[in-house]
UniProtKB/TrEMBL annotation:
Record protein name field: 6-hydroxypseudooxynicotine dehydrogenase complex subunit alpha
Biological source species: Neomoorella humiferrea
Gene: kdhA_3
Listed InterPro entries: CO_DH_flav_C, CO_DH_flav_C_dom_sf, Diverse_Substr_Oxidored, FAD-bd_PCMH, FAD-bd_PCMH-like_sf, FAD-bd_PCMH_sub1, FAD-bd_PCMH_sub2, Mopterin_DH_FAD-bd
PROSITE patterns: FAD_PCMH
Enzyme class: oxidoreductase
Length: 293
C-alpha cells in the first residue's frame, strides 16, 4: 500500500494540506507515531504530513503576561532554556527528565500533549501551570485550557483540520511568589513511563497567603487530571502541615488508577500520597522544615 508524504514549509501550507486530507497523520518528532507505524498500530494510514520544517512552531517567546512555547519545540530545547527553568520550572523539569537523550532531542512538547497519555509528563506540568493550548485551522483559531484538552486516553479536543500550534504559560502577577514542584516515580529514572507523576504550583502573596494552587496528576485516571477539590483546601489560607496532611488523606477519593504492567492501583494510591505531600511542601516553601514526607 502506498502512503502519501507531505513536508510543508509553512504553517499555512500545512493547514491547507490537512484541509484537503483530514485523515492524514501529522508527524513531528515521531517518537510516538513511528513506533506505532512499525507495529502496524496506525489503522488505514493514507498519508503523513511532516511538520518539522515549520520554523514558527519551534520558538519560545516571552511576552508581558505569558510565555509561548511552540508545539514543535523539543524537550531538549526546553531543558536548555534558562527562561523556562526560571519561570516555568515544572515544564522545564518534565522535559529535562523526559525519556533518554535521543527522545529529548527529537520529541516535542506538542507531540507529548497530542499523544494524550494518562501519564504524560509534559501534560501534568502544563496542567499545574494553568496553560492554554493554541489550536488553529484554516477557519478558526481557539485557545483551550489544558485542563479541557484531554478527552480520554489518546484522545484530545482537536477536530479534523486542526493543528496544535503551541501553548501559553501565564506568568505570576506582580507581588506574587510562585512555588513549583514536580514529583515522579517510574521503574527507571526518567526513561520509563511514570507510575505516578504529580506537579504543583502555588502562588502566595507577600503575607504568605495562598492565592492560587494548581495540582496536576498523571497515571491516576484515563487522562492527566487537575485535582480541584484538593486545590481548594489551600486557597486563601496560609499553608501548613495540617493542610498538607488533609490533602494527602483526601486524595484517594479523587483518583481512579488502574492495574497495568507498570504498577497496581493499590500501589499508585499509596505512592501518590507520599509524592503529593512532597510536592506541596516544596512548592509552598515548607520543605525546609523538619518533617519527614
Amino acid at each position: 500500500m502506498s502512503v502519501q508524504y507531505y513536508s510543508p514549509g509553512s504553517f499555512t501550507e500545512a493547514l491547507q494540506v490537512l484541509e484537503r486530507n483530514s485523515n492524514y497523520t501529522l508527524l513531528a518528532g515521531g517518537t510516538d507515531v513511528v513506533p506505532r507505524l512499525n507495529l502496524r498500530q496506525v489503522k488505514g494510514l493514507q498519508g503523513l504530513i511532516y511538520l518539522g520544517n515549520i520554523v514558527e512552531m519551534k520558538k519560545i517567546v516571552e511576552h508581558n503576561e505569558h510565555i509561548f512555547i511552540g508545539a514543535l519545540v523539543t524537550h531538549a530545547c526546553i531543558a536548555a532554556s534558562e527562561l523556562i527553568k526560571q519561570k516555568a520550572y515544572n515544564v522545564w523539569y518534565a522535559s529535562y527528565h523526559m525519556g533518554t537523550p535521543a527522545i529529548r532531542n527529537v520529541g516535542t512538547i506538542g507531540g507529548n500533549l497530542v499523544n494524550a497519555s494518562p501519564a504524560g509528563d509534559s501534560c501534568v506540568a502544563l496542567l499545574a501551570a494553568g496553560a492554554l493550548a493554541s489550536i488553529k485551522s484554516l477557519h478558526e483559531n481557539r485557545l483551550v485550557p489544558i485542563k479541557e484538552f484531554f478527552v480520554d486516553k489518546g484522545k484530545t479536543v482537536l477536530k479534523p483540520g486542526e493543528i496544535l500550534y503551541g501553548v501559553y504559560l501565564p506568568k505570576a502577577a506582580t507581588g506574587i511568589k510562585k512555588g513549583c514542584s514536580y514529583q515522579r516515580i517510574g521503574t527507571l529514572k526518567g526513561s520509563s513511563t511514570a507510575i505516578i507523576n504529580i506537579a504543583v504550583e502555588i502562588e502566595q502573596d507577600t503575607d504568605g497567603m495562598c492565592r492560587a494552587c494548581r495540582i496536576g496528576a498523571g497515571a491516576v485516571a484515563s487522562t492527566p487530571v487537575r485535582l480541584y477539590s484538593l486545590e481548594e483546601i489551600f486557597v486563601d489560607k496560609r499553608i501548613n502541615w495540617n493542610l498538607i496532611e488533609q490533602a494527602a488523606n483526601e486524595v484517594d477519593a479523587h483518583i481512579n488508577p488502574i492495574d497495568d504492567t507498570y504498577a497496581t492501583a493499590w500501589y499508585r494510591r499509596k505512592v501518590i500520597k507520599v509524592l503529593l505531600k512532597r510536592a506541596l511542601a516544596e512548592a509552598s516553601g515548607l520543605a525546609s522544615e523538619e518533617k519527614e514526607v
